Amino acid sequence: MTEESMSYNVGESAGASTESLLNDSGEVDEAAPSGPSALDPRLAPIAKNPERVEKVIVGLFVLGLLGFAAFGALYWHGGRQPQLEGVFIGVGLMSLGFGLSSWGKYLMPRGPFVEERHPLASEPQAQEEFKEALVGRGKYVLKRRGFLAGLMGLAATVFAIVAAFPFIRSLGPVPGDILDKTSWKRGSRLVTADGRPVKVDTLQVGGILTVFPEGHAGSAIAQTVLIRAADVSITTKPGRESWAPEGYIAYSKVCTHAGCPVGLYQEQTQQLLCPCHQSLFNVLDGAQPVFGPAPRPLPQLPLMIDSEGFLRAQRGYEVPIGPGFWSRS
Amino acid sequence: MIDQALGWLDERLGVSKSGKKFLDKIFPDHWSFMLGEIALYSFVVLVLTGVFLTLYYVPSTKEVIYHGRYLPLVGKRMSEAYASTLHISFGVRVGLLMRQTHHWAADVFVAAIAVHMIRVFFTGAYRKPRELNWIIGVTLLMLAIVNGFIGYSLPDDLISGTGIRIAFSITESIPLVGSYLAFFLFGGNYPGTAIIPRFFILHVLILPAIIAVLIGAHMGLLIRHKHTQFPGPGRSEDNVVGSPLWPNFAAKTTGFQLIVFGVLFALGGLIQINPIWQFGPYLPYKVSYAVQPDWYMGWLDGALRIMPSWEFAGFGHTIPFEVFLPGVVLPLVTTLFFFAWPFIEERFTGDHAPHHLLDRPRDRPLRTSFGAAVLAFYVVLFGASSTDVIANFFHITLNTVLWSFRFLVVIVPIVVGVITNRICHELAGTAQPREARPRRMPNVIVRSDEGGYETYPVSPYPEDEAIELEPEPVPVNVDQDATA
Prior knowledge:
CATH topology of the largest domain in chain A: Rieske Iron-sulfur Protein
CATH topology of the largest domain in chain B: Cytochrome Bc1 Complex, Chain C
CATH architecture of the largest domain in chain A: 3-layer Sandwich
Radius of gyration of chain A: 39 Å
Number of domains of chain B: 3
Structural class of chain A: alpha+beta
Structural class of chain B: mainly alpha
Largest interface: A-B, 112 and 128 residues
Number of strands of chain A: 12
CATH class of the largest domain in chain A: Mainly Beta
CATH class of the largest domain in chain B: Mainly Alpha
Helix content of chain A: 25-40%
Radius of gyration of chain B: 27 Å
Number of helices of chain A: 6
Strand content of chain A: 5-15%
Number of domains of chain A: 3
Number of strands of chain B: 8
Distance between the termini of chain B: 27 Å
Order of helices and strands of chain B: HHEHEEHHHHHHEHHHEEHHHHEEHH
Helix content of chain B: 55-70%
Largest sheet of chain A: 5 strands, antiparallel
Shape of chain A: flat
Oligomer: heterodimer
Number of helices of chain B: 18
CATH superfamily of the largest domain in chain B: Cytochrome Bc1 Complex, Chain C
CATH superfamily of the largest domain in chain A: Rieske [2Fe-2S] iron-sulphur domain
């Protein structure tokens, strides 16, 4: 057609093997209107029998069409059937895709084609000019005006610092001692997640319940696991003689490792397991970690039973609950 | 008509010259180059399905009482975020298909990036001049993981809520500034009400925008550098051999895009993923058993699980190394190490020349075995995220599983590295690169009347010979009939 492609077609490299190929592809191309004409084997398709490939592609495109139509019909009828929806649109898209890829792979010039790669780096002179322009002009700008530049730099720095405040400091309050405290106080009644107070007969031996200080049901921080390990008072550590009356033991439910709720109680072994990273705590030994990544025991909440039989906290937790942080002493 | 349109454009933008060059751009024909395409097209699906989801999702922790179509949860208190996700799943037509396809696409997106990166690593495609594109690629992988985690958190279901809690604890573990960062991120102490809307804007605007820009830069550099290619007949450091963009590659890649779309939608329709209605709404004091994040978080989760409990406490301060090392230092060091790798290798080999021909992994035994060892390290960490499942399945104690992994994470990479090195050396002696090796020919074995055997190679098929043709530039017109 153009001079370029004409001259290109007089391939130098193909030689005799091209000649023998021509006959092959010539046979294949019999159906083409202008007869056996290929001069360059690179322009022949990969397919030995293009008509058969065309038929397959027709089949795929029709299948795609049917898939889309089925999806449309299904949607029209308003059926919430994700399986069928996915199959229809998936089959439609895949058929269309396989058809189009096959078209590109089997029916288009097989090549190989080439493009040249040119060195990325510039000539030394261009590099030098660029550097000279960048640095030289910069020096010219700053000549005898270093003070201006310094002042502008100072202003820009102050701007950057000041502008950072709204984007960082406004995001939230500083922690202060918030992480050290929970809403448990002296005399807080123990309530369940729906706010019902816990009495001395609420749990059987071996029972477990998640409790909160009254007025804070559902609290993510104050959540506490209450276990009745026995029906007599239990001492989990020296100095905690009065903390577990009637066998009721309370530990912070926030894992000291990564903060997950330590929710799985194994009654036979008297162990609490954190389901996230499998730290295991010994209930009868002050929730000392026996296994896993947790570094510290779960803090224990000292309990008492008031005259009406309600469970109350003697006071709040003595140490910060949950995972470690820098200012935790 | 087309003349007019092109003329109009050319007079205003001058597109003809660069346009022709772009149409002639050569794409090497090798299957491994499709891995990056899978990532790209998964991202397109993510954007399309994601836009659909934003039309219905409500990023709010405001408590509502559910009155939707999913009867087991009717009357339950839950956040608007969770309720709206239930609505997408049950109330919106094709909503569940879109949600599950979005989730599948995210899993495939990260997987495709990871496998693409493995391909780039083992073939040395990151070498000069492509170090910057490698860094962009590593950044994309990390951003994809982060955005995947954030998106997974948005439904505010029981499992994802637990993940957010762990994210708070990990942030909190950073020495000196950790609790400040955590409070700034969450707008106060955990859980607060700010994290869902903040995660939402990160997930749908900020991170996707950065990812889209970086993908643009990634592909811009790809065009600037041109493709790498494996050694072969007619291929050199100074050329690229393969199919032209127009029409071959355009047809193949568009078709491939549709296939990726189709597979993702079929997965989204057929294979249930993240059935949040089964987990229930997030309540901070509830937790479900066998909690596991999406696969691409597995290495971090596994590292958290097998890390010994090395908390430092003293001088009035606490450094929770058991969280800080696996949760913060590990991903940070991983990223920085991957960033630095091309430069480390360059320093190590003293090779400062540009490279456009790819290595076969066996020809670089040191790099290959080192890469295999590093990969094995992360695979073991990934396996460690299933300690509880493994213990249950094999009826062994968690303790045994945990300690096994603590040893395996050191032993397996060493063993894998040594074995890979060995295999590379074994292979290196046998097969030559294709460049130096004549194309494999079929052998014919003939048995003579006397019972003797004779083997001789037969001529290759004509189409095999065609592949051995010298590559030529693409002619302006590729129509055989027109050029005749």
